[in-house]
Amino acid sequence: LVSREHHATRSVIRVGGVPIGPDTLSVIAGPCAVETPEQTLAAVLMAKQAGASLLRGGAFKPRTSPYSYQGLGERGLKILADVREETGLPVVTEVIDPGSVDMVASYADMLQVGARNMQNFALLQAVGRAGKPVLLKRGFSATIEEWLSAAEYIAQRGNLDIVLCERGIRTFETATRNTLDISAVPVVQRLSHLPVIVDPSHSGGRRDLVVPLTRAAIAAGADGVIIDIHPEPKTARCDGDQALIESDLREVADAVTILSPLM
Ligand code: PEP
Fold first, then answer.
1. pLDDT of 259
2. Residues in the chain with pLDDT values less than 70
3. What is the DSSP string of 187-245?
4. How many Cα atoms within 13 Å fall on the side-chain side of residue 175?
5. 114 CB less than 6 Å from ligand 1?
């Protein structure tokens, strides 16, 4: 269902009325994790300066360590809904278990399935039935074939509103947190009709790499990027090292407007 054999032309997915797909370059941006109403609003206002048309923010955080910040849960979703009201940007947020899909879907415009859950088949089936577009991140040890099979689980439940997100894979390299597999963008776009976006924040894990990786993603033909922003990264409860700050926003906005004619 997700292959080009099923659907020859590339799909456009609408999220709260905002298109993601060919002929647009979507920026999804906001805090890695929702911490407070003030921090979330500040990050999303910064996201708008960077050219964002959708906001991101995690209320349920699937952290590697159980001692790391796990998110505000439903309280965080309410903050996201308030910030949508204030800024007009649709909400992209992660859901981590099948039992909370309906609850998360009642607040979100797009459900994110994170890298750690890419092969959580019960979750994939649940988001496939939820009636909301899905952002499916690539697992950090998943092949492209496994990633597309995961998308197939969602599609098989009747939901073809799926956007794929390359977010870096695990390699022998330790200079970056993960290795952005930039070739996955054109490879997947040839195999599948679904839009493909890139996460330059979680792949590199470093603020100084976000702009160069954004440029690389656009040059490779990605349909968008998803970026972490924080008003005060030093105090961030999650992934502060990769969060963009005020002085980076212009470069992202310029990369998006200047490079998108390349598409
Ligand atoms: C995220 O986007 O908040 C996230 C945890 O990303 P990933 O699943 O790619 O690690």
1. 73
2. 261-263
3. HHHHHBSS-EEE-HHHHH-SHHHHHHHHHHHHHTT-SEEEEEB-S-GGG-SS-GGG-B-
4. 3
5. yes
The first and second tokens of residue 55, run together, are 């906001």
Instruction: Determine the residue type at 240.
Output: G
Mutate to test the pocket of ligand 1, among 96, 117, 137 (most ligand atoms within 8 A of CB): 137
Regarding beta strands 54-56 and 26-30, do their DSSP bridges make them parallel or antiparallel, or are they unpaired?
Answer: parallel
One-letter identity of residue 3: S
What amino acid occupies position 183?
Answer: S
Residue 79 is inside which H or E element, if any? helix 74-87
Q: How far apart are the C-alpha atoms of 58 and 94, rounded to whole Å?
A: 6
**Ligand 1 centre distance from Cα of residue 169 (Å):** 12
Please provide the CATH number assigned to the domain covering 13-262: 3.20.20.70
| In the block, residue with structure tokens 């700050």 | 245
Give all strands (DSSP E) within 22-125, no chain letters. Answer: 26-30, 54-56, 91-94, 110-113
Q: Which ligand 1 atom lies nearest to the CA of residue 117?
A: 8
pLDDT digits (tens, 9 = 90+) for 71-111: 999 999 999 999 999 999 999 999 999 999 999 999 999 99
Q: Cα separation of 261 and 233, whole Å? A: 32
